[in-house]
C-alpha cells in the first residue's frame, strides 16, 4: 500500500498549501506546547490551527464543536492517530457537535478504531450532525458496525483526497459499509482511493447510501473491496438517496449479492462517466449485475465504460436491470461473458408492455449462449444510434425497436450490417476510426448526452455519431502508466496528417484560442515537438512513448496536421 500513501501525501501537501485563510487566530503546537492532540483542541478557539509534529499519538479525539484546523506538519505517513488505546471501543475522531467544513482534519493516518455494539458507528471517523472537512488522510485498519472508516449520520462532510484502506464493517443484522456509511447525509466524496475494504456480513464494502439526498461521489478510485453477503462491491445506493456518481474508477470489486460494482435499490442516481471494470458478483440467476445492478429505479446511466465484469452464472454481467424505467445512453458495454444477456439483462415484474431508452451505446465483444442484450417475458427496448458488433452468438434478441444503428447480421428496422470500424475493440480501444461508417450517421438527438464516454463534446459535425464515441481529433492513453513511465498513447484524426507530441507541466489559464487550429493549453516552457509519424488511412495510431519518470503530473498535447488535440494528463505520482 506504499503507493497509496505516497499519492495521499502529494494530495495532502497541495491541500495544506491552500489552507491558510483569514480568521486563523493562533497556532497550537503538539507536542512542543501540548502533550496530546486533545489537550490542544481543548485549549483552541474557533479559527485556530493545531499543528501536530511526527509521531504516533495513542488517543481518541473529539473536536467538541470547534471549527479548528487540525493538521500534521509532515504528512500522514509519519503522523499517526491510533485509537487502539485499550480503553474499550470508540471512534478515533469524533465530530458530533455541529462542526462545519471549517473544522478540518488533514494529513494523518487514522487507525485502530473499533466501534462495536448496536450503535457501532464510524471506526475511524464519526460525523454526527456535523459537516467537517477530511482532507488528505490515510484512514486504515478500523472496524465498525456501520462505516468502518467513516460514518456520516445527518451530516454533510467533505471527504477529499484520502486513502481509505483495509477497513471492516461487521454488522450481521441488516446493513453496513466497509468504508463510508452515509445516512440522511449530503456528503461530498471526492478524489479518494478506497481500496481493500471489506463487509463481513451485509452491506457494501465501499460506500453505502441510506436515505441520503444530494451525495456527490466523483473522481474516486474504488477497487478491490469485497463483501461476504452484501450488494454493491463499490457503491450501494438505497431508497431515499439521490446520488450523482461521476468519473470514478470502479475496478476489481466483489459482492456476494447483486452489483459487483454498483447496486441501486429503489432510488434514482445519475451514474455517468465512470470506468466500471472487472467487478464480480456471486449472485445467481439472470439479474446479477457484475458491473451495475438497478432495481425499481429510474437511474440515468450515461457515458460509462462498462467492461469485462463477471457473474458466477446466469446473465447481466455488464448491466442487470429489474423494473427499470430510466435510460442507458452513451455507454460502452464490452468484453462480458454470461449464459445470456452478457452485456445487459432486463426484466420487469408486471406485464412487460414497457420500454426504456437505449441510445448512442456501443456493445462489442460480449459472449454467451444467448444474445448480448436479452430481456425476460417479452420486454423490449427502444434502441437508437447504437452499435452491436462482434458479439457471440449475436447482439440482439427479437422484438426490439431499432433506429439508425449498426447490428451485425442485420435486424428489422433501420439497421446497418456493416463493420463500424472501431480502432481496436478487442484491445479495449472503442474509438471510431476516421473511415467508420458510424461517423455523422446518427439520426436522433433523443437522450443524447452533452459528452461522450471520454468527455468529448457531442455533436462534432452537425449530426451525432452512432455509438458511445463522438469522433474528434484526439490524444488518449491506452492502459495505465508503467513503472518506467512508458505509456502507450493513441491518436485519431485525418489520414496522412503528421502527428507531433508536446509535453508540459502545467496548463495555461486562460488557454490560447487559435481560431484556425484549435486551443493551445500547455503552459510554457514545453518539450517538443516529438514527431510520431503520419496517420495511416484508418486515421488512428497507437505507440509507446517513454517519458522521464518525474514525480509530477505531465500534460501532453498533440498536433494532427495543423490542428490541435485535447490535453492528456499522465499522472506519474501514482505509479508504483
Describe the sheet with the most strands: 15 strands, parallel
Oligomer: single chain
Per DSSP E runs of 2 or more residues, the count of β-strands stands at: 61
Structural class: mainly beta
Unreliable spans are 1-24
- For the largest sheet, list the strands in their spatial order: 1-2-5-8-12-16-20-24-28-32-36-40-43-46-48
**End-to-end span in angstroms?**
9 Å
Proportion of residues in extended strands: 35-45%
Shape: globular
Secondary structure: helix percent: under 10%
Number of helices: 2
Radius of gyration: 25 Å
Descriptive notes:
- With 576 residues, the chain is mainly β.
- Helices cover 4% and strands 40% of the residues.
- The strands form eight sheets. It has a 15-stranded parallel sheet with strand order 1-2-5-8-12-16-20-24-28-32-36-40-43-46-48.
- It is globular and about 75 Å long.
- The termini are close together.
Which key terms come to mind for this protein?
15-stranded parallel β-sheet; mainly beta; single chain; 576 residues; disordered N terminus; 4% helix
Write the SSE topology:
Blueprint lengths: L1 H16 L9 E4 L6 H7 L5 E4 L2 E4 L2 E2 L6 E4 L6 E4 L10 E3 L8 E3 L2 E3 L2 E2 L9 E4 L4 E3 L2 E3 L2 E2 L5 E4 L4 E3 L2 E3 L2 E2 L10 E4 L4 E3 L2 E3 L2 E2 L7 E4 L2 E6 L2 E3 L2 E2 L7 E3 L4 E5 L2 E3 L2 E2 L6 E4 L4 E3 L2 E3 L2 E2 L10 E6 L2 E3 L2 E3 L2 E2 L7 E6 L2 E3 L2 E3 L9 E4 L9 E3 L2 E3 L8 E3 L6 E3 L2 E3 L11 E3 L1 E3 L7 E2 L5 E3 L4 E4 L41 E5 L7 E7 L5 E7 L2 E8 L3 E5 L4 E8 L5 E7 L6 E8 L2 E9 L5
Parallel strand pairs: 1-2, 2-5, 3-6, 4-7, 5-8, 6-9, 7-11, 8-12, 9-13, 10-14, 11-15, 12-16, 13-17, 14-18, 15-19, 16-20, 17-21, 18-22, 19-23, 20-24, 21-25, 22-26, 23-27, 24-28, 25-29, 26-30, 27-31, 28-32, 29-33, 30-34, 31-35, 32-36, 33-37, 34-38, 35-39, 36-40, 37-41, 39-42, 40-43, 41-44, ...
Antiparallel strand pairs: 51-52, 53-54, 54-59, 55-58, 55-60, 56-57, 60-61
Amino acid at each position: 500500500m506504499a503507493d497509496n500513501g505516497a499519492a495521499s501525501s502529494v494530495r495532502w501537501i497541495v491541500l495544506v498549501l491552500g489552507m491558510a485563510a483569514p480568521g486563523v487566530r493562533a497556532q497550537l503546537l503538539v507536542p512542543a506546547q501540548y502533550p496530546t492532540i486533545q489537550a490542544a483542541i481543548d485549549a483552541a478557539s474557533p479559527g485556530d490551527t493545531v499543528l501536530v509534529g511526527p509521531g504516533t499519538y495513542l488517543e481518541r479525539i473529539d473536536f467538541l464543536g470547534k471549527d479548528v484546523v487540525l493538521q500534521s506538519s509532515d504528512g500522514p505517513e509519519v503522523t499517526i492517530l491510533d485509537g487502539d488505546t485499550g480503553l474499550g471501543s470508540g471512534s478515533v475522531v469524533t465530530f458530533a457537535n455541529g462542526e462545519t467544513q471549517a473544522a478540518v482534519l488533514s494529513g494523518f493516518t487514522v487507525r485502530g478504531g473499533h466501534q462495536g455494539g448496536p450503535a457501532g458507528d464510524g471506526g475511524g471517523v464519526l460525523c454526527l450532525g456535523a459537516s467537517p472537512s477530511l482532507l488528505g488522510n490515510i484512514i486504515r485498519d478500523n472496524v465498525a458496525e456501520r462505516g468502518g472508516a467513516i460514518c456520516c449520520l445527518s451530516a454533510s462532510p467533505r471527504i477529499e483526497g484520502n486513502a481509505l484502506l483495509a477497513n471492516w464493517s461487521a454488522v450481521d443484522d441488516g446493513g453496513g459499509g466497509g468504508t463510508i456509511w452515509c445516512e440522511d447525509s449530503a456528503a461530498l466524496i471526492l478524489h479518494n482511493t478506497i481500496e481493500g475494504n471489506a463487509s463481513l456480513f451485509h452491506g457494501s464494502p465501499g460506500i453505502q447510501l441510506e436515505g441520503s439526498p444530494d451525495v456527490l461521489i466523483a473522481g474516486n478510485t474504488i477497487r478491490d473491496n469485497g463483501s461476504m453477503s452484501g450488494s454493491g462491491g463499490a457503491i450501494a445506493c438505497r431508497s431515499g438517496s439521490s446520488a450523482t456518481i461521476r468519473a470514478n474508477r470502479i475496478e476489481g470489486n466483489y459482492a456476494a449479492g447483486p452489483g459487483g460494482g454498483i447496486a441501486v435499490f429503489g432510488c434514482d442516481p445519475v451514474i455517468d462517466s465512470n470506468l466500471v471494470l472487472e467487478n464480480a458478483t456471486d449472485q445467481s440467476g439472470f439479474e446479477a449485475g457484475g458491473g451495475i445492478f438497478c432495481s425499481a429505479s429510474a437511474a440515468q446511466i450515461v457515458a460509462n465504460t462498462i467492461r469485462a465484469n463477471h457473474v458466477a452464472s446466469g446473465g447481466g454481467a455488464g448491466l442487470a436491470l429489474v423494473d427499470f424505467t430510466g435510460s442507458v445512453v452513451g455507454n460502452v458495454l464490452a468484453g462480458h461473458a454470461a449464459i445470456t444477456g452478457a452485456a445487459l439483462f432486463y426484466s420487469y415484474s408486471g406485464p412487460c408492455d414497457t420500454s426504456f431508452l437505449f441510445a448512442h451505446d456501443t456493445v462489442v465483444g460480449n459472449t454467451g449462449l444467448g444474445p448480448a442484450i436479452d430481456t425476460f417475458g417479452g420486454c423490449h427496448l427502444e434502441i437508437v444510434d447504437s452499435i452491436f458488433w462482434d458479439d457471440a452468438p449475436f447482439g440482439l434478441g427479437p422484438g426490439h425497436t431499432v433506429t439508425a444503428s449498426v447490428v451485425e447480421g442485420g435486424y428489422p428496422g433501420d439497421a446497418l450490417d456493416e463493420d463500424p470500424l472501431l480502432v481496436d475493440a478487442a484491445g479495449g480501444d472503442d474509438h471510431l476510426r476516421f473511415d467508420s461508417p458510424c461517423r455523422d450517421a446518427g439520426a436522433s438527438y433523443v437522450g443524447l448526452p452533452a459528452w461522450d464516454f471520454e468527455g468529448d463534446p457531442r455533436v462534432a459535425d452537425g449530426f451525432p455519431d452512432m455509438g458511445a464515441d463522438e469522433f474528434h481529433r484526439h490524444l488518449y492513453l491506452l492502459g495505465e502508466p508503467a513503472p518506467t513511465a512508458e505509456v502507450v498513447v493513441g491518436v485519431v484524426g485525418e489520414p496522412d496528417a503528421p502527428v507531433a507530441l508536446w509535453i508540459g507541466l502545467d496548463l495555461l489559464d486562460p488557454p490560447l484560442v487559435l481560431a484556425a487550429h484549435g486551443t493551445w493549453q500547455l503552459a510554457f516552457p514545453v518539450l517538443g515537438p516529438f514527431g510520431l509519424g503520419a496517420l495511416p488511412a484508418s486515421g488512428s495510431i497507437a505507440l509507446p512513448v517513454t517519458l522521464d519518470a518525474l514525480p509530477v503530473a505531465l500534460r501532453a498535447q498533440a498536433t494532427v496536421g495543423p490542428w490541435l488535440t485535447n490535453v492528456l494528463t499522465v499522472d506519474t505520482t501514482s505509479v508504483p
